[in-house]
Amino acid sequence: MINKVLIANRGEIALRILRACKKLNIKTVAIHSTADRQLAHVRLADESVCIGPADPKKSYLNIPSIISAAELTDADAIHPGYGFLSESSTFAEIVETNKFIFIGPSSNVIRTMGDKIKAKQAMKDLGVPCIPGYDEILPEKISSPVLKKIQEVGYPIMLKAIYGGGGRGMKIVHNEKELQKSMDLTRTEAENTFGNGDLYFEKYFDKPRHIEIQVLCDNFGNAIHLAERDCSIQRRNQKIIEESRAVNIHPQLIDKIGEVCVNACKKLGYTGVGTFEFLYQDNQFNFIEMNTRIQVEHPVTELLTGIDLIAQQMLVSSNKKLDIEQKDIKCNGHVIECRINAEDPKTFIPSPGKINLFHAPGGPGIRTDTHIYSGYEVPPNYDSLLAKIIAHAEDRETAIKNMLQALNETVIDGINTNIRLHKKLLISDFFVNGKFTINSLTEYLNNN
After folding, report:
1. Which of 184, 298, 332, 420 has the greatest CB tally within 10 Å of its CB?
2. Alpha-carbon dihedral of residues 144, 145, 149, 150, nearest 10 degrees?
3. What tens digit of pLDDT does each residue of 92-137 get?
4. What sign does the dihedral 257-259-263-268 (CA atoms) show?
5. Residues 158-204: pLDDT tens digits?
6. Rounded to an integer, what distance in angstroms lies between the CA atom of residue 284 and that of residue 281?
7. How far apart (Å, rounded) are the C-alpha atoms in residues 104 and 95?
8. Whose CA is closest to 310, among 107, 90, 77, 146?
9. 359: burial class by Cβ within 10 Å (0-12, 13-18, 19+)?
10. What are the CA-CA distances from residue 301 to residues 185, 246, 387, 416 (Å)?
11. pLDDT at position 166, please?
12. Which of 293, 339, 367, 396 is catalytic?
């Protein structure tokens, strides 16, 4: 069994990992920047190490400092959380080389899945349905093979950064006239954001939903899926509301694509948790990418199935066999998660600053994952996520009702948040009726 875990992250996910460690009697090491000395997980961890200044490049992305902290504290495993280095094959390989346990899949698998072209090629070989497109690195200037492929696929297309994520390095192109300029702009954004400007393109779907399948695998060839999450309510490709079960998609279709994902994991030799992301349109699933880490929205699955995903990560990394089979997975009721961000409700510009008063909601079926507290100073250096409020009820209508009550109870005074937007969305016709796509929120904002 793992004895001591270094938590290589911050915020609510760091606190969530710490709680899972405590549940399993695993000791914890919290690393932190100078801006995060007062975070809850830093106070609660068995040990803490400051690894650098507020700038993420000098702290949470500083691999030598993280490895040094693990060596200094005699940690035997490192949990990367999400974001930062969680999907860095280089980091995973260095962790492995230094004889620490990386709580996630192997660096080789992360490397394959991190390159979106290689990931698509691997998924095609494994029988996973993929979006048609140009599955090679686009040349800097438009070429005949590129134009030929676009003619086959048809406009509009979506330019994508090969190493992109988080909604960055993506642009829709509607015709050849705007193609070259769009390629140049997207390549520049990708270089500035990810350090690599390589691009590819896929067919652009006009009315898709964003559906993801959660998987869990051990080191002994066992793999299961834990149903789906609908993450279609998003702005600029950033998720805002997630839920399960997905409305208007038959569970048999979910089970079928889930089985495809499980078989792919077995052939890949995948271990730990992972998420297959799909665009769903016209009753078809089309693979986008695989996230080789815990997802922000993992509480949706935990409340739906009753399975602690992060504890399962720890057990798998401790070389334990899964004690859960596919037939054991039961989906109970309906779950909705709202991401509460520190941002201006109109401009969506981040809103750092001091939280004068914080009050979390409560009541049956309500869970709040957060790291904030009254008096907490939200730094400007990191992601604007403050909290995740999750409502679990016997059906969707009740889950919506309970979530609205939870949002009404939530008090975050001193900074701007998107709580008001969530309240509006939860009573909007398109959300209540379950008739939405990944474009619905943008359309709603443009009309309101």
Report:
1. 298
2. -30
3. 999 999 999 999 999 999 999 988 889 999 999 999 999 999 999 9
4. positive
5. 999 998 776 788 999 999 999 999 999 999 999 988 889 999 999 99
6. 5
7. 11
8. 77
9. exposed
10. 37, 12, 17, 29
11. 66
12. 293
Paired sense of beta strands 334-341 and 238-244, if any: antiparallel
Q: What is the pLDDT of residues 286-302, one digit of tens each?
A: 999 999 999 999 999 99
Residue 63 is which amino acid?
Answer: I
Q: Are 81 and 14 in contact (CB under 8 A)?
A: yes
Spatial separation of the C-alpha atoms in residues 25 and 15, rounded to whole Å: 15
Displacement of CA 167 from its chain's centroid (Å): 11
Which tokens is 431 given?
A: 């959300």
Q: Give me the percent of the chain exceeding a pLDDT of 70.
A: 100
| Dihedral sign for Cα atoms in the order 88, 103, 2, 56 | positive
Q: How much is the mean pLDDT over the chain?
A: 96
Whole-number pLDDT of residue 236: 82
Contacts of 51 (CB under 8 A, 6+ apart): 31, 32, 33, 59, 60, 62, 65, 66, 68, 69
Residue type, 47: E
In angstroms, the CA 201 to CA 131 distance is: 10
Whether 293 is catalytic is yes
C-alpha to C-alpha distance for 228 and 260, rounded to whole angstroms: 13
Residue owning tokens 């009541």: 363
Q: Which domains does the chain have, with CATH numbers?
A: 4-103 (3.40.50.20), 132-203 (3.30.1490.20), 209-447 (3.30.470.20)
The rounded distance, in Å, linking the Cα atoms of 337 and 241 is 6
Nearest residue to 84 (alpha-carbon basis) of 103, 56, 125: 56
Under a CB-based contact definition with an 8 Å cutoff, are residues 350 and 380 in contact?
A: yes
* pLDDT tier at 336, thresholds 50, 70, 90: very high
And the tokens for 52? 């650098």
From the list 230, 249, 231, the residue with the least C-alpha distance to 240 is 231
Question: Which tokens sit at 257?
Answer: 């694509």
8 Å CB contact between 28 and 45: yes
Q: Tokens 């904002």 correspond to what residue?
A: 445
Rounded CA separation 316/373 (Å): 33
The dihedral sign for the CA sequence 313, 316, 322, 326: positive
Could you give the CA distance from residue 95 to residue 86 in angstroms, rounded to a whole number? 12
Query: Strand, helix or coil at 49?
Result: strand
Residue-level pLDDT at 222: 98
Q: 406 to each of 96, 235, 397, 422, how far by Cα in Å?
A: 43, 22, 14, 11
